[in-house]
Design goal:
Layout (H helix, E strand, L loop, with lengths): L2 E6 L7 H9 L4 E4 L8 E5 L2 E5 L12 E4 L4 E2 L1 H13 L8 E3 L3 E2 L2 H14 L11 H10 L11 H22 L7 H9 L2 H4 L3 E2 L1 H10 L4 E4 L24 H5 L10 E7 L2 E3 L12 H9 L12 E3 L1 E2 H11 L3 E5 L9 E10 L2 E3 L6 H6 L1 E8 L16 H14 L2 E6 L7 E3 L6
Parallel strand pairs: 1-10, 1-11, 2-5, 2-10, 5-7, 6-8, 7-9, 11-15, 14-16, 15-19
Antiparallel strand pairs: 3-4, 12-13, 16-17, 16-18, 19-20
Bound molecules: guanosine-5'-diphosphate (GDP), 6-O-phosphoryl inosine monophosphate and magnesium ion.
The site of guanosine-5'-diphosphate has 22 residues, from α1 and β3.
Length: 428
């Protein structure tokens, strides 16, 4: 009865969608446990590119049951648009199950996300503007709306009234926007109720029973370790727990049922939005990583900030998530450099930190300490075994494996489903 958690080790966009797709053939359920349509996963299958935001990437694999867990925040308009687009491309969407406890993203929270960002000015987070932060804030403040509220008209209206009472004051008096009426919100949400009803279940019960029956369940994280609200570079983070613990709270499956924790990590580093990024490059190398790696956001199209591999971040991710296996993606992007810098520690005003400093201020002031590994020129995108890799690429993998706190079980050498080198099986 394996339960496998998959998370991002860095700042997102490591290739989690591809890794999920890779495992999809051997799993019965793929469960999204955190975040919402701030995620953007690209999966390339037989030359066809799919971009997923809210749906678990496992929806692309025939036979898999995709599940949206209680920890997710759901924009219903996006949900049905994404489902319709997949159906038009011949994907079977009939198995999707949605937790009755998942929270809804009402339109007023998309507005709140944008106006609060504008208000922060220079202290902006650079959010995706999808209403994620305000919806999780409502959940914690206990004024959120849940999927099940769609089926109780009077409760839904009471909750929307309660939430808008304060939000309208803010919108009108602080942010200089128009007030939102209870009716427009209730009408919009209720217009989806009939479509939502057949998808809804007690997903915690469903998943626990499935594990009892010997099914294989993959818990697919959105975002990543360094964007986790508790363990990331706060406040430059997303508003959910994107680390492995989030798989339990975000689905209602206990920690003893998790057998493996797989973290996806790029052979270099990227970040979208604001916040510290110690190995960031503002030079031609950074531009080259962006060009060769096609580092532009799937959700917002923003250019991603690029930098070298950061081993302290990898070790931190290994520790915080209890990583058993890394999937290292985009090794092919590093082809053609004479030498490859790898950050082995941080220098904060002359003090060397081999682990991430506990103080956020230190992280902001840290400078990378680099070790230089020899590069390779050979094209590697058709390589399918470790031994066929150029010797310097093998050395690069072994060196970062040694530094990063868990074995590297899969290596990505291209965007397509089959462009991988498998060293160890990910599923026990
Ligand atoms: P996610 O958010 O973690 O699912 O990752 P994204 O889909 O946002 O970004 C990862 C990008 O890298 C996508 O465009 C993938 O198609 C691509 N990709 C994944 N693995 C590899 C790889 O090994 N090599 C190359 N060149 N591209 C990859
Ligand atoms: P995937 O799942 C990369 C970033 C945003 C912003 C911060 C907060 O594709 O890896 P939010 O809208 O979540 O409140 O924005 O988090 N961010 C991501 N960056 N990949 C993602 O998802 C992200 N989801 C959010 O850019 O800096
Ligand atoms: Mg992404």
């Amino acid at each position: 009865m394996p339960g496998i958690v998959l998370v991002g080790a860095q700042w997102g966009d490591e290739g989690k969608g591809k890794a999920t797709d890779l495992m999809g053939r051997d799993v019965d359920y793929v469960v999204k446990f955190n975040g919402g349509n701030n995620a953007g996963h690209t999966v390339v299958i037989a030359g066809q590119t799919y971009a997923l935001h809210l749906l678990p990437s496992g929806i692309l694999t025939p036979g898999v049951t995709p599940v949206i867990g209680n920890g997710v925040v759901v924009d219903l308009e996006v949900l049905f648009q994404e489902l319709a687009a997949l159906e038009n491309r011949g994907i079977d969407i009939s198995r999707l199950v949605l937790s009755s406890n998942a929270h809804l993203i009402p339109s007023y929270n998309r507005t709140m996300d944008k106006v609060t960002e504008r208000f922060l000015g220079k202290r902006q987070i650079g959010t995706t503007g999808r209403g994620i932060g305000p919806t999780y804030a409502d959940k914690m403040e206990r004024v959120g709306l849940r999927v099940q509220d769609l089926f109780d008209s009077s409760i839904l209206r009471q909750k929307v009234e309660g939430a808008l009472m304060r939000k309208n004051h803010l919108l009108v008096k602080v942010y200089n926007r128009r007030a939102i009426s209870v009716n427009e919100v209730v009408d919009e949400l209720e217009s989806f109720a009939d479509q939502v009803r057949p998808l809804v279940a007690d997903t915690a019960l469903l998943l626990n029973k499935a594990l009892d029956d010997g099914a294989t369940v993959l818990f697919e994280g959105g975002q990543a370790t360094m964007l986790d609200v508790d363990h990331g570079t706060y406040p430059f983070v997303t508003s959910s727990n994107a680390t492995a613990g989030g798989a339990c709270t975000g689905t209602g499956v206990g920690p003893k049922r998790i057998d493996r924790v797989v973290a996806v990590i790029k052979a270099y580093a990227t970040r979208v939005g604001a916040g510290p990024f110690v190995t960031e490059l503002d030079d031609a190398d950074g531009e080259r990583l962006r060009d060769v790696g096609h580092e532009y956001g799937v959700t917002t199209g923003r250019p991603r900030r690029c930098g070298w591999y950061d081993a302290p971040v990898a070790r931190y991710a290994a520790r915080i998530n209890g990583v058993t296996d890394f999937v290292l993606t985009k090794l092919d992007v590093l082809t053609g450099w004479d030498r490859l810098p790898v950050c082995v520690a941080y220098d904060v005003g002359g003090t060397i930190h081999s682990d991430l400093p506990a103080s956020q201020t230190d992280i902001h002031h840290a400078r990378p300490v680099y070790e230089y590994l020899p590069g390779w020129d050979e094209e590697i995108s058709r390589v399918r075994s470790f031994k066929q890799l150029p010797p310097n690429a093998q050395t690069y993998i072994k060196a970062i494996e040694e530094m990063s706190g868990a074995r590297i079980s899969v290596i990505g050498v291209g965007p397509s489903r089959d462009a991988i080198i498998q060293r160890h099986p990910l599923i026990p």
